[in-house]
Design a protein that fits this description.
- The structure is a single chain.
- By secondary structure, the protein is α/β, with parallel strands linked by helices.
- It folds into three domains: 13-56, no CATH class; 70-167 and 298-326, Response regulator (Rossmann fold, 3-Layer(aba) Sandwich); 169-296, Response regulator (Rossmann fold), CATH 3.40.50.
- Helix content is 41%, strand content 17%.
- It has twelve helices and twelve strands.
- It has a six-stranded parallel beta sheet with strand order 2-1-3-4-5-11, sandwiched between helices. It has a six-stranded mixed beta sheet with strand order 7-6-8-9-10-12, with helices on both faces.
- It comes from Microvirga mediterraneensis.
- This is LacI family DNA-binding transcriptional regulator.
Length: 339
């Protein structure tokens, strides 16, 4: 007996039970790992489910069991190479571990991400990973009260009970500054966008402080979107006004744009101008760029997020993760050798 294909409703466990001649609880036990059910009943239920095209309603099951394998993810600028790769790795690893990703794009969240987190909570998620924006402590407290972990990635929130996992932006920016100074650069610039994200603020601030310690006052660009085109605009603007011999861009994407803009203006890289980026996106290693950059390990970042998701919540502050992941300089071909 096949179900009428003209119907638009999902096949239910009651439909399966009716066809198999068993109770609904027997259907439930059949699809519950470790539950007790006889071989005959299991076979009849599985055959009925196959005939009808039945699939377990995992969302409903999580509401009944009060356990969810859904993980909410809030992010913006998802087309940016680093963010796209981060989301790709996290979603693949979640699936591999039996969890699913519920993604909400925060690009249009002009009033902050609190409404998005409130929406995610309605799905009874296991945890919420925040890749963009900074949720207020009140919504984090609400999540914790509902047994939902909040994991902030590459952003910090003081006085909140949230897990925080960030790359060591401060060390990375200082490493970039020291490398340019060691290369003999004395007319140095730093390029960021107008986004003023916590990550960009940390990187730019640490870089500026370090070059000032070397007796150099850097030229600063902080305008436009976090995009390749901003790098080109920064190159045209800064190189027209300053005879720079070293530049640090707070993201690789802007560094690639700056590199192309500098070449457009006749600068030789690295003979006339040394450039360092940050993130080590895939495009940085392309033969056309071979960008020297600061790498943050994507695998380490993903593993730390997954560990936080899977860590049992005890309600104690010591239960929270506060990790700073190490970074390293990747030497390629856009910085002069030290004199």
């Amino acid at each position: 007996m096949k179900r009428d294909r003209t119907t638009r409703s999902f096949v239910t466990s009651e439909d399966v039970a009716r066809l198999a001649g068993v109770s609904r609880s027997a259907v439930s036990r059949t699809f519950t790992p470790g539950a007790s059910v006889s071989a005959d009943v299991r076979h009849r239920v599985q055959e009925a489910a196959k005939t009808l095209g039945y699939r377990v309603n995992r969302l409903a099951r999580s509401l009944i069991s009060d356990q969810s394998n859904l993980v909410g993810v809030v992010g913006a600028n998802l087309s940016l190479p680093f963010m796209a790769r981060q989301l790709d790795e996290l979603s693949r690893e979640l699936l591999r571990r039996g969890m699913q990703c519920l993604l909400l794009n925060a690009a249009e969240a002009e009033q902050g991400i609190t409404p998005l987190i409130e929406l995610i909570l309605e799905f009874r998620v296991r945890a919420i990973v925040v890749m963009s924006g900074s949720p207020p402590s009140s919504i984090i407290d609400e999540c914790m009260a509902n047994g939902v972990r909040v994991i902030l990635v590459n952003r910090q929130a003081d006085d909140t009970e949230a897990d925080t996992i960030i790359s060591d932006d401060l060390s990375g920016a200082r490493i970039a500054a020291e490398r340019l100074v060691r290369a003999g650069c004395r007319r140095i610039g730093v390029v960021g966008s107008g986004a003023q994200t916590p990550t960009q603020i940390r990187r730019r601030g640490a870089f500026v402080d370090r070059v000032r310690e070397a007796g150099i006052e850097p030229a600063v660009w902080a305008s436009g979107e976090t995009a390749y085109e901003t790098g080109i605009d920064a190159a045209r603007g800064l190189l027209s006004a300053h005879d720079l011999d070293g530049v640090f861009c707070v993201t690789d994407l802007m560094a690639l744009g700056f590199l192309d803009g500098a070449r457009e203006m006749g600068r030789r890289i690295p003979e006339d101008l040394s450039i360092i980026g940050f993130d080590d996106i895939q495009q940085s290693a392309w033969a056309a760029y071979r960008l020297t950059t600061v790498r943050q390990s994507m695998s380490d970042l993903t593993e730390s997020v997954l560990a936080a998701i899977e860590r049992k919540m005890t309600g104690e502050k010591g239960d929270l993760a506060h990790e700073v992941l190490p970074v390293e300089l990747v030497e390629r071909a856009t910085v002069r050798s030290a004199p």
